[in-house]
Specification:
By secondary structure, the protein is mainly β. It folds into two domains: 2-66; 75-281, Alpha-Beta Complex (Fumarylacetoacetate hydrolase, domain 2). It has helices spanning 27-30, 34-38, 42-52, 83-88, 161-164, 222-230, and strands at 2-8, 11-18, 21-26, 64-66, 75-79, 98-102, 107-108, 114-116, 123-124, 127-133, 149-157, 159-160, 180-188, 200-205, 208-214, 240-242, 264-269, 273-281. Strands 1, 2, 3, 4, 5, 6, 7, 10, 11, 13 and 16 form an eleven-stranded mixed sheet that branches. The chain has a five-stranded mixed sheet with strand order 8-18-17-14-15, with no helix packed on it. The N and C termini lie far apart (44 Å).
Length: 286
């Protein structure tokens, strides 16, 4: 099943992809959001999908896509998780996952603009697989880790590179408003290979392919990341693990390629979806 979160005339809602189009219901009618459903387990998700399959069709143009989980408690991003990306960054292959955080204030949905901030022109793209937690847990054994993943989505971990490297911590460069594109859909885990392994992923700017790799090449797979992160903290339904980007980022092109207003940035993972966003300049406050 493929779920969306959206906003429309009746406020925020949850929808389901069907062959006829998206069908959905407002949160005000449902009494809960998508994060609440996935936290109740796979059976509840199946029942919810059946309910939405009979919901009204959402008319094209009458709604706007939100990130599948618009307000996750935790967004945990992984750096240098593809060998060729570590190599192009002149960094040794990590022996332990490089983890940093995003806040949901940085998120935008599909088709919403990525914002190039006024303080920097060095806005970069990063195609990444996002794993969404469905079952809470702490100290999760690696062999049970995938039971805690409800589904997967596509993420563009757009980064303001000069702010990212101003200190040893990447936090500032990864948390500018309007730079974390997420969506368009949450694809339930049962529709994909275990751990979403073996899926081609790609980033394109104005149709030009700049990143192209396969999730099979991750240094730390999804199960390992869930296990390792849960050693430190409780993972909760709706938490998002953004699993790292392959080689080909703009900063390592020759010459570098930076996102600029008017560009169309597309990141895609076969079997999960295409996430497209225009790039706009930050508007100055009056």
């Amino acid at each position: 099943m493929r779920f969306i979160s959206y906003t429309g005339p009746a406020g925020n809602g949850v929808g389901l992809f069907t062959t006829a189009g998206y069908r959905g219901l407002p949160v005000s009618e449902l009494g809960f959001a998508l994060r609440d459903v996935i936290g109740k387990g796979p059976d509840a998700v199946v029942e919810f999908g059946a309910r939405l399959s009979e919901a009204p069709l959402l008319a094209p143009g009458s709604f706007r896509l939100l990130p599948p989980i618009p307000d996750p408690d935790k967004i945990l991003c992984i750096g240098l998780n593809y060998r060729k990306h570590a190599a192009e960054s002149n960094t040794p292959v990590p022996e332990y996952p490089v983890v940093f955080s995003r806040y949901h204030s940085s998120l935008v949905g599909a088709d919403a603009p990525l914002i190039r901030p006024n303080v920097s022109d060095l806005l970069d793209y990063e195609v990444e697989l996002a794993a969404v937690i469905g079952k809470s847990g702490r100290n999760i054994p690696v062999e049970q880790a995938l039971q805690h993943v409800a589904g997967y989505s596509v993420f563009n971990d757009a980064s303001v590179r000069d702010y990212q490297v101003r200190t040893q911590q990447w936090f500032m460069g990864k948390n500018f408003d309007g730079t974390g594109a997420f969506g368009p859909e949450l694809v339930t885990a049962d529709e994909l290979p275990p751990g979403a392994k073996g899926l081609h992923l790609e980033a394109r700017v104005n149709g030009r392919v700049l990143q192209s790799d396969n999730t099979e090449d991750m240094i730390f797979d999804v199960a390992t990341l869930v296990h390792v992160i849960s050693e430190a903290m409780t993972l909760s339904p709706g938490d998002v693990i953004v699993t790292g980007t392959p080689s080909g980022v703009g900063a390592r092109q020759n010459p570098p390629i930076w996102l600029k207003p008017g560009d169309i940035c597309e990141v895609e993972i076969v079997g999960i979806g295409l996430l497209s966003n225009p790039v706009e300049q930050e508007r100055s406050e009056a």
